[in-house]
Amino acid sequence: MDIPSKYEPQNVENQWYDYWLKHNYFHSKPDTREAYTIVIPPPNVTGVLHMGHMLNNTIQDVLVRRARLMGKNACWVPGMDHASIATEAKVVAKLKSEGISKEDLSREEFLKHAWDWTNEYGGVILQQLKKLGCSCDWERTAFTMDDNMSASVIRVFVDLFNKGLIYRGHRMVNWDPEAKTTVSDEEVNYEEKQGLLYYIAYKIEGTDESVTIATTRPETILGDTAICINPNDERYRHLKGKKAIVPICDRAIPIIEDEYVDIEFGTGCLKVTPAHDINDKALGEKHHLEIIDIFNEDATLNRFGLHYKDKDRFVVRKEISKELEEKGFLVKTEQYINKVGTSERTKAVIEPRLSEQWFLKMEDLVKPAIKAVLTDRDVKLFPKKFENTYRHWMENIRDWNISRQLWWGQQIPAYYYGDGQNEFVVAETPESALQLAKKKLAKTNKDASEALVLKDLRQDGDVLDTWFSSWLWPISVFNGILKPNNEEIAYYYPTNDLVTGPDILFFWVARMIVAGYEFRGAKPFENVYFTGLVRDKQRRKMSKQLGNSPDALKLIETYGADGVRVGLLLSSAAGNDLMFDEALCQQGKNFANKIWNGFRLVKGWEVEDIPQPEASKIGIAWYTSKFNQTLIEIEDHFSKYRISDALMAIYKLVWDDYSSWLLEIIKPAYQQPIDRISFEAAIHIFEQNLKLLHPFMPFLTEEVWQHIAKRSPEEALMISQWPERKKINTNLIDGFNFSSEVISGIRTIRKEKNIPMKEVLELSVLNKGKIAGDWNSVICKLGNVAKISEVGEQVEGALSFRVKNNEYFIPISGAIDIQAEIKKIQEELNYTKGFLLSVQKKLGNERFVNNAPEQVVDIEKKKAADAEAKIETLEKSLDSLR
User: Fold this and answer.
1) CATH of domain 732-816
2) Is residue 654 over pLDDT 90?
């Protein structure tokens, strides 16, 4: 098979990926081997490949490919999340562009559009992951809206409801007015924004007096139902029991007292708007205040907004402040920075809103999950620092708002009957719900029970939070909810490793642990590896908005998938952010070329049955020990999830030890053959290197592997065996380390004295300690030294260098131009003496020494000492040449 002169990734990547798929190497089914399982963090069905996905999935692929090589039954389950808010927004936008409003459609019609959109545009990212080389079991691709997945979610809801853990409640929630749904606390990002603080005068009913209240949201005064003062505030004690008039709407509201009000903050007076602030709601409940909700679901004002009805809240803010000023209610405004909550999904400013929602009680559910991570260590987090974050979240957890006001998602299986909202049952199917409703109704109204039919039931219109489906992911992908005793869940669960970002530690990771113990009585995974965020060179998080995120597929096209994988992993320590630089991908590409060129070099040698040189024999023995020493180091890195360190160890082994040293040691002389023993050993060693490299660089390594020899499908690299640990000869490793310093010393002298490599040198050694006698053949070959002899004293008139306690001498006669060398050294000596004189002059200046910082004076003293030492060395060199 002809070996191309250059490695062209674009010519081989599709070929080998198709080959792996054709032979079903990615697919797993239960057998007698040890299972190794990873479930992919399901990307949004709307998603496209970005740098975070590239890093996360490369790490997963490394772990899965290594597990296969180690003989495990590796199963990597891919899939997608239906992403309720994001997907519904995409579908609504598409419909709008076609002149269709969601409000004009029935639920069934809208869902048809949603499925059409999903089938046409969804899942792009999974195809893109194939370009990266991801060896997922594509036959197992799951989607959180698949029939069995949805049925699992519904069954879990019913189970938790029947256990008394799910309830309906009227609560203050985070409302996304763009998506028109509630979002969880964790889906709200708080940003500091410059705004205004408006000081507004409220008249006291029946008097000429007024009180001033400061607010950042003047539009909400239309929903005020009280003014609150601190009972200990002397300034306002006389207002107790009186009423204030709300500006513009002229409503009289009570003045209440509560120590919640901070006397020192603002004016010491607080306007209370129970419908639009969580703290105000608590005050409202405590003091039995009226609740006035002034907003529609899209954050326009409703009928309570008076003449501002149907206008957007931010438009109203400007207009009402102008009206307040014109009517004399606006006392002043001040610049004010406050934290504003925005929706993680739509970036809309969150509006606190009272709403009827479904909640899951979390206090008791989380206890096994806390114990598993923090006490028993059954689930281990890497890096360990994230345990503190986990502890904080889990020990301060609040009930989970699991309902969303959307149509795309699993519809809540609550069925209402009768006239009121409070008459409902929860069941997996409408038919089961009807039987439950009849049974429940029969207790109070037998006739109504008998008359109740299916069409009388009305299913709750909300859907479940997307995370309520993905928290079941490690269980539901193996159908462990619907069929808890099936063969696959028994074999693959618990899974082994989870690779994800720390930003969803609470959203997803913690909740999966909770679900694992609640529904399987066992952890969902053993280890969680948290990647860092991918940032640019300026430490900014990569994002579309900043335009600082490169096109992931373009990078693969430019540098090859292996080059990009190496570039990402070389700087991605667990839990630490990756400062991405495209130069890293070039480094990865250069590494691929280095491996390819090394392979071409070896395969280009002519092989003959001739004796094996001593240098080749010891070099191969050394590399074998070095390989096994590095293998132990690599496996230790993997055990601690130091994937970047594992790659760096392999990188150094292949680039430095194999390519720069071993190949040079065994390389035959120009146009001469290599002995068969060394050649076959070099090929075997190269194959072992490829096995270590394969998880990181799957395409290149498979290409080289298949070029080395004609292989059957059963002999493909990706299903071969991880190298076995063998005995390490530390004497060989020590001997190489010593001799490599000697070789470097010879090469340094050649470079400094311009002695060409073709010129054969003689080397003498004054042995005051260890001597690498066994390695003399290697030293002679790589240093182009005729012979090495021992001497009992220093050799006069020779160039020298030291390695540990040994001093080496190279005779200079004939090797260099002595007069030119004397001139060069003399010039350097003169310059150094002049430099020393200037430093000594500075140190002789008492003013400088007494006034300069001690550290500065110490630096000057060190300069003087270094110059003196250099002068002594240069003078000795001159003496030896004269």
Assistant:
1) 3.30.2320
2) yes
